[in-house]
């Protein structure tokens, strides 16, 4: 284990995971996560009030667990980092309040950082220094974006938004289609598993924003609501005809449509900029087909693909700590102690 770089504790509460991570430079020391996902399952989606309350209950035990795993005491840390946004307002507030209390009590600097850039920075913990510039494809339950990253700390326009979904996020589409197929929430992993024994060419589902006309205005944007509707129609038609729905085939064909368009646009973004590194992050990056397809197509184009292991793709505190450590290492000015929780923080604002 390398023993250099700043020791940073990161707190993540933007959605339903209470994450507390501890890193030293690029070395991961602890990644404690308490998820309230089971409390939301019966609603088929995350309920903001339930998430906020769960964060409150989990915060102190999760901090304690992270410190115990890392073998440190709080006073050892050089800085506190926290997700300032984007995310659920009430959920973010819990993390930001906890981080402020720690920073004030310990007299340490605080960095309020962007959740999306954290999904990029986390890769350093596994694969070493980030290639900059790189293209980042971020796909999760709340976001689907293509970023051009020249400096992950956002310095001097270092994170630029090339495209994003114009309706549902990719993970949201997985969750909605899973529900339609009678699979539990969150649906991504269940679709992934069902698809493994289904046929991806059974049904030719639409690829959103891929027609020549759409590409003129939305070359790097995504749309998944039409796909979701197409799946719903297809399933309804079978049910009306009294036929059994081939769940595995629908899952595989749907998954193929999502992964095809994500990979196609991400590689187009990289090629258009002459950038040779593609990083994929966010919960949907855990998808086995997305990882395989990206790898396969990128190789032919001479583009390298980096994807964190699945546990670091979904929301966690280590990603926030990783970005915080980068802020310290690159000498960025810490945030003010009255930093906001901003539910719609733009991706270009990496440090508040
Ligand atoms: O990044 P994340 O943990 O939280 C958000 O910021 O949303 O992502 C959660 C999303 C959910 O929509 C979940 O269904 C999806 O990631 N997901 C997957 C897989 N594992 C998680 N989607 C497809 N395939 C997977 N294996
Ligand atoms: Zn996320």
Tell me what the structure shows.
The protein has helices at residues 37-40, 48-70, 89-106, 115-121, 124-127, 170-180, 188-195, 212-218, 225-240, 247-273, 288-301, 310-313, 317-329; strands spanning 7-12, 17-24, 27-35, 79-85, 110-114, 134-139, 144-149, 159-164, 277-281, 304-306. With 352 residues, it is an alpha/beta fold. The chain has two domains: 7-122 and 316-329, Nucleotidyltransferase, domain 5, CATH 3.30.420.40; 131-308, Nucleotidyltransferase, domain 5 (2-Layer Sandwich), CATH 3.30.420. The strands form two sheets. It has a five-stranded mixed sheet, with helices on both faces. Strands 8-7-6-9-10 form a five-stranded mixed sheet, with helices on both faces. α6 runs antiparallel to α10 (247-273), α7 (188-195) crosses α10 and α9 packs antiparallel against α10 (247-273). The chain is globular, with a radius of gyration of 20 Å. The mean pLDDT is 96. The structure holds 5'-O-[(R)-(carboxyoxy)(hydroxy)phosphoryl]adenosine and zinc ion (ZN).
Keywords:
Nucleotidyltransferase, domain 5, 352 residues, 5-stranded mixed sheet, 10 strands, binds 5'-O-[(R)-(carboxyoxy)(hydroxy)phosphoryl]adenosine, 13 helices, alpha/beta, 44% helix, globular, binds zinc ion
Number-wise, the strands total 10
Structural class: alpha/beta
**Main beta-sheet annotation:** 5 strands, mixed
Count the domains: 2
Computed CA radius of gyration, to the nearest angstrom:
20 Å
State the CATH architecture of the largest domain: 2-Layer Sandwich
CATH topology of the largest domain: Nucleotidyltransferase, domain 5
Q: What string, H for helix and E for strand, traces the elements in order?
A: EEEHHEHEHHEEEHHHHHEHEHH
Query: What would CATH call the homologous superfamily of the largest domain?
Result: ATPase, nucleotide binding domain
Terminal CA distance reads 31 Å
Overall morphology: globular
CATH class of the largest domain: Alpha Beta
The side-by-side strand order for the widest beta sheet comes to 3-2-1-4-5
The distinct bound ligands, ions and cofactors come out as: 5'-O-[(R)-(carboxyoxy)(hydroxy)phosphoryl]adenosine, zinc ion
What's the number of helices? 13
């Amino acid at each position: 284990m390398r023993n250099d770089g700043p020791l940073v504790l990161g707190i993540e509460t933007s959605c339903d995971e209470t994450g507390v991570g501890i890193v030293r430079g690029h070395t991961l020391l602890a990644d404690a996560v308490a998820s309230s996902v089971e409390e939301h399952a019966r609603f088929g989606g995350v309920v903001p009030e339930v998430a906020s309350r769960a964060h409150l209950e989990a915060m102190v035990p999760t901090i304690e667990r992270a410190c115990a795993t890392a073998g440190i005491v709080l006073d050892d840390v050089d800085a506190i980092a926290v997700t300032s946004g984007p995310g659920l307002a009430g959920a973010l507030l819990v993390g930001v309040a906890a981080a402020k209390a720690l920073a004030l009590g310990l007299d340490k600097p605080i960095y309020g950082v962007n959740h999306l850039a954290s999904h990029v920075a986390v890769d350093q913990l596994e694969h070493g220094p980030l290639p900059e510039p790189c293209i980042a494809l971020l796909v999760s339950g709340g976001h689907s974006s293509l970023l051009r990253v020249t400096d992950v700390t956002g310095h001097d326009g270092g994170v630029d938004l090339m495209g994003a979904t114009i309706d549902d996020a990719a993970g949201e589409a997985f969750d909605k289609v899973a529900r339609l197929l009678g699979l539990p929430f969150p649906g991504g992993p269940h679709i992934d598993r069902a698809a493994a024994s289904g046929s991806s060419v059974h049904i030719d589902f639409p690829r959103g924003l891929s027609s020549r006309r759409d590409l003129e205005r939305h070359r790097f944007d995504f749309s998944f609501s039409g796909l979701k509707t197409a799946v719903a129609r297809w399933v309804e038609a079978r049910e009306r005809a009294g036929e059994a729905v081939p769940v595995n085939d629908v899952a595989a064909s749907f998954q193929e449509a999502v992964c095809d368009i994500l990979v196609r646009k991400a590689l187009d973004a990289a090629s258009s900029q002459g950038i040779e590194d593609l990083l994929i992050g966010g919960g949907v990056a855990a998808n086995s087909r997305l990882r395989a397809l990206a790898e396969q197509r990128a190789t032919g184009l001479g583009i390298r693909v980096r994807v964190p292991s699945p546990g670091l793709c979904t929301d966690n505190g280590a990603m926030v700590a990783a970005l915080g450590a980068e802020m310290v290492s690159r000498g960025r000015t810490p945030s003010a102690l009255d930093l906001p929780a901003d539910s719609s923080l733009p991706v270009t604002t990496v440090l508040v």
